[in-house]
């Protein structure tokens, strides 16, 4: 299969079609109508075989994950996901692999109302790069800057399941059949909290998604905002599956340092806490307060039941 046949058969005809795309896949560039009064939000993520995914991974789940992790970045900015561009580097053309990958990508793009509008294909080590674009009302984008002393620190959902899923796939641990499906689903098929991110535009002072672990990601907010934080590890939300499958120390390490949760980590001023539960209740996703912002710039302090908690692990490091 030649390059343009590959694009035509796998990516050009399938997927959600947006009314604001004048020209999509198949031309030298995409033509997109951006709404007046909105800002464009752009994010890019790369996944490399042997670094970010196993060689034997289900290509359908890989297509899903590639979209979800990029859309999660848009969610953290409070943006509406709109358009995707795919950079696909392949060692060989495997028609069955490509079909499954394209189906996973297309199904997930449809779910988030995104359209694949272009990209590039080339030969080389299996590498997947996606550029996701979204829109947010002008001046309303969330960022890692903006946390203030006294703000409360929150996370959506539960943390640590994906890290345990990685350990299962690596053969480092065994878990019960009762919990195996949930844990592996969280690892292979993450969910981007898009609706919650948009709801937080009016209430959060800062926001990001958790991709490298809480202890790896929260310092980014602290640095950008020029503040510190105290986190109570006893309040870290964990699923029953994680708690049943590990002892507390192992579960906590997964939750603090495991990464790839793609939950939202955000701060809320005290005067807006009262409306938070009402604002987010329609989405059916638990939101947990785990700490508070302090004036100790750049310092992340962990406590357990008001006592200092010593912890030597950080989040995932790319280099």
From TrEMBL:
Keyword terms, alphabetized: ATP-binding, Kinase, Magnesium, Metal-binding, Nucleotide-binding, Thiamine biosynthesis, Transferase
The gene that this protein is the product of is thiL
Which residues bind Mg(2+) 1 per the record? Answer: 44-45, 120
Q: Which residues bind Mg(2+) 5?
A: 212
Annotated PurM-like N-terminal domain ranges read 26-136
Could you say which EC number(s) this protein's record lists? 2.7.4.16
Has the keyword Metal-binding been applied to this entry? Answer: yes
Q: Where does Mg(2+) 2 bind?
A: 45, 73
Entry binding sites for Mg(2+) 4: 28, 43, 73
Hey, which family's this protein in?
Belongs to the thiamine-monophosphate kinase family.
Task: State where ATP binds.
Answer: 119-120, 144, 211
Any further remark recorded for this protein: Reaction mechanism of ThiL seems to utilize a direct, inline transfer of the gamma-phosphate of ATP to TMP rather than a phosphorylated enzyme intermediate.
Known HAMAP family for this protein?
A: TMP_kinase
Q: Which organism is it from?
A: Rheinheimera tilapiae
User: For binding Mg(2+) 3, which residues are annotated in this chain's numbering?
Assistant: 28, 73, 209
What's the protein called, per UniProt? Thiamine-monophosphate kinase
């Amino acid at each position: 299969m030649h390059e343009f046949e590959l694009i035509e058969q796998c990516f050009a005809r399938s997927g959600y079609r947006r009314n604001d795309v004048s020209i999509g896949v198949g031309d030298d560039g995409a033509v997109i109508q951006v709404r007046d009064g909105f800002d464009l939000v752009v994010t890019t993520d790369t996944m490399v075989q042997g670094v970010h995914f196993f060689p034997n991974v289900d290509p359908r789940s890989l297509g899903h994950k590639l979209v979800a992790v990029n859309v999660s970045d848009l969610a953290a900015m409070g943006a509406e996901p709109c358009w995707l561009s795919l950079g696909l580097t392949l060692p060989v053309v495997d028609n069955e692999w490509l079909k499954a990958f394209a189906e996973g990508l297309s199904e997930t793009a449809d779910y988030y109302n995104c359209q694949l509008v272009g990209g590039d294909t080339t030969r080389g080590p299996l590498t997947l790069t996606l550029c996701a674009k979204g829109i947010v009302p002008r001046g309303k984008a969330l960022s890692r800057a903006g946390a203030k002393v006294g703000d409360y620190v929150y996370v959506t959902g539960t943390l640590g399941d994906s890290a345990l899923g990685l350990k299962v796939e690596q053969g480092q641990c065994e878990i019960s059949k009762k919990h195996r499906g949930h844990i592996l689903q969280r690892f292979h098929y993450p969910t981007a909290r898009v609706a919650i991110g948009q709801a937080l535009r009016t209430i959060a002072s800062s926001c990001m998604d958790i991709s490298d672990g809480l202890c790896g990601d929260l310092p980014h907010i602290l640095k950008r905002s020029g503040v510190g934080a105290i986190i109570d590890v006893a309040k870290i939300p964990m699923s029953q599956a994680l708690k049943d499958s590990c002892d507390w120390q192992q579960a906590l390490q997964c939750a603090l340092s495991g990464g790839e949760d793609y939950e939202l980590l955000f701060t809320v001023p005290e005067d807006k806490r009262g409306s938070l539960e009402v604002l987010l209740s329609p989405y059916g996703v638990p939101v947990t307060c785990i700490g508070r912002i302090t004036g100790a710039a750049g310092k992340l302090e962990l406590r357990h039941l008001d006592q200092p908690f010593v912890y030597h692990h950080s989040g995932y490091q790319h280099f």
